[in-house]
Amino acid sequence: MKKRVLLVQLPPERYLERGIPYLQTHITKNRHPLYISFQRPEANLKEHFTRNNIDNIEIIDLASELATAPPENIDLDNIITTIYKASLKHKELVVFIDSLSTILLYKPLSELLRLSEVLIRLAKQKQKILLLLGIASDFASKEFVKNIALLADDIVTPNP
Amino acid sequence: MMQVPHFKNVTFIETKPERARSILEDTIQSLTCSLCILSISTPAKTIRSGQRTNVTIIDCTGQNTQESDSNTIFIKNASSLAEMSAAISAWLEKTQGERYFILDSLPTLAMYNPPSYVARFAHTVATKTRLSQAGCVFLSAKESISQELRAEIVQICDAIIQDD
Predict the structure, then answer these.
(1) d(CA B141, CA B156)
(2) Are A152 and A120 within 8 A, CB to CB?
(3) Which CATH superfamily is domain A5-155 in?
(4) Chain A CA closest to residue B161
(5) Tell me, what's the pLDDT at A92?
(6) Residue B131: its chain A contacts at CB < 8 A?
(7) Is the minimum CB–CB distance between A138 and chain B shorter than 8 Å?
(8) A15 touches chain B (CB under 8 A)
(9) Dihedrals φ, ψ of B38, to 5°?
(10) Considering only CA atoms, which of B3, B10, B5 is closest in space to residue B102?
(11) How far apart are CA A131 and CA A7, in angstroms?
(12) In angstroms, what separates the C-alpha of B93 from chain A's closest C-alpha?
């Protein structure tokens, strides 16, 4: 059975430098990329994607919303709906969640765990979504990361 | 002199504790554009020197009895993150073109606030400056903040400078 959920551990100093090329290895002609960003606004990410010759990526910019509106206004269920709708539109989907620890800055642990569980279930059931859960490697020993890692198919540490 | 990476970047500068003051001075000198300095432990009058008028200082030392003016904003309490955030937003709104926000410094801010609040504050400030096409510099002394707080902040930065 194909791996559908990967916990991607990235060095914090080289988070995007390693994360973007890794995401790139999973983008194919039939697999559309969707980037859910809690860390950086869209314009900043686009610069990095352009530098890596990724031009067809869809970015959901939650970082800007979190910086300009109360976090209570952000409903994590909308992420599930967005991913589900995108999966209906495309043959296959690769979704990068950037990142688990950043979500935790704004949302309670219970909401992060629920979001992760629902997304993992969705990816495993649909069999057309590859879910990449980004996390800085310094958080690997945190309890919430261990709980999510138990549900993932694999834990990867991309090398340059 | 410290060279901060080009405009629009979010930069993390890590120094030896004894070099922190001179790194701040170097950073201010190397950036001739408009600046906003959020100072947690150094009073505005100590930072302000020379004839530069394009420097706004948000002084959170709580040592001043003066009224805020257009170039100096006094915040009584270093744990008033909402007040600091509002002052930064106001500066971003009133200035245009090339400009930098400097946070001096993360360890002192972390002395007055829980690490998760500091991480969230830094994240919000970095995003606000990016959205306003401004630069942002976080100053920190080496090994003076927890590994987790450091990781949370450096992962959102475009450049990390180690001053050895």
Answers:
(1) 18
(2) yes
(3) P-loop containing nucleotide triphosphate hydrolases (3.40.50.300)
(4) A13
(5) 94
(6) 41, 43, 64, 67-68
(7) yes
(8) yes
(9) -95, 110
(10) B10
(11) 8
(12) 13
Asked if residues A152 and A5 have their Cβ atoms less than 8 Å apart, the reply is: yes
Task: Kindly give, in sequence order, each residue whose CB lies less than 8 Å from that of residue A121, ignoring residues fewer than 6 positions away.
Answer: none
Q: How far is B65 from chain A (nearest CA, A)?
A: 31
Give pLDDT tens digits for A51-62.
Answer: 999 989 999 999
Q: Which residues of A touch B134 (CB under 8 A)?
A: none
The 10 Å Cβ neighbour count of residue B115 is: 16
Name the band, by pLDDT with cuts 50, 70 and 90, for residue B1: low
- What is the token pair recorded at B58? 């948000």
Domain layout of chain A by residue ranges = 5-155
Note the pTM of the prediction, 2 decimals.
Answer: 0.92
Helix axes B115-131, A42-51, angle to 10 degrees: 80
Q: Is the CB of A12 less than 8 angstroms away from the CB of B154?
A: yes
Determine the Cα–Cα distance for residues A63 and A148; give it in Å rounded to an integer. 22
How many residues in chain B? 164
Q: How confident is the model at residue B89 (pLDDT cuts 50, 70, 90)?
A: very high
CA-nearest of A54, A60, A106, A41 to B134 is A41
Q: Note the ipTM here.
A: 0.91
Residue A77 to residue B164: CA distance in whole angstroms? 46
Chain B residues whose C-beta sits inside 8 Å of any chain A C-beta? 116, 119-120, 123-124, 127-128, 130-131, 147-148, 150-152, 154-156, 158, 160
C-alpha to C-alpha distance for A123 and B6, rounded to whole angstroms: 40
